[in-house]
Amino acid sequence: MSQVFVLAKRPVGVPELEDFDLVSLQEDSLGDGELRIEPVTFSVDPYLRGRMSDARSYVAPFEVGAPIASAGIGKIMESRAEGFAVGDFVRGEFPWASSFVLGTAGLWKLPTDLEVDPSAYLGVLGMTGLTAYVGLVVLGKVTAEDEVLVTGAAGAVGSVVGQLARIFGARVVGSAGGSAKVEQLAKLGFTAGIDYRSSDFAQALDVSFPDGISLFFDNVGGKQFEAGLHRMKDFGRILSCGAISQYNDTELPPGPRGLEGLVVRRRLRIQGFIVSDHQSHYREYLSKATQWIRDGQLQSLETIADGFTELPTAFVSLFSGGNIGKMLVNATSSAP
Prior knowledge:
The protein is an alpha/beta fold. 24% of the residues lie in helices and 26% in strands. The chain folds into 2 domains: 2-122 and 300-330, Alpha-Beta Complex (Quinone Oxidoreductase, Chain A, domain 1), CATH 3.90.180; 127-276, 3-Layer(aba) Sandwich (Rossmann fold), CATH 3.40.50.720.
């Protein structure tokens, strides 16, 4: 039998632990071309909140009563698939289950000569890192002349964005919630950090960007998006990666004031993007990021919860700022 977390009911507002059920399910028998996998580490990400609703989105919603799934790293315990051996470690989208059977489509074998902790392939060397790279470099075309603002800067994507901006020579300021997170930004090499919860947040932005923002990487939306928008330089670029401040809203929030007029007068470009549209850049990014890690220019920032049963708790904590960097859950004692 396998222990599996399923969606008990669709959350209303902020997700709660009662929205999940832990059930026992009979494991599937292994067919040709299939693997039995034991999960090692799960990635827990804010975008999963959207999949818990039945609203139209870029990815199909979870069904009530069906397993939750997210990116993970697992160990092959049994194999009937060519090219995949017992003991290999793979990355893919996994059900939140203690053991499961999958085909090989969408699976990626981890290198055998690991230079980093394998969890990095869910974060800085995985889709998290690629998201930062695509937004900042491929779409944003960051240069050493840029004045960059990153919201959610102590989060999974934001912490990588800031480091990449520094690597490319830009001046980068991050906003984060609380002094501990702001202090972490300095350790990552941000030029400055601002506590968005402080009463003088707007004034701090003015001080940090006396000549305006040329490139704005937004992970938060809402009031922070509006604050950055009103401080953009002419011909500035805004990369809209996420809106975690609004994921739990039950009604449409007010739009940013002055959006249309500012976009026209300052000739701004606002680009929303989804990393799954840009998978072709992964090998390019992986090569560069691996070298940046070797050179000590790029760090992997993680918050790790221990135990498979901590998955719902880790997910819920994302919406109260419970993570610094990538939120991960160690599901088992198995490790590369």
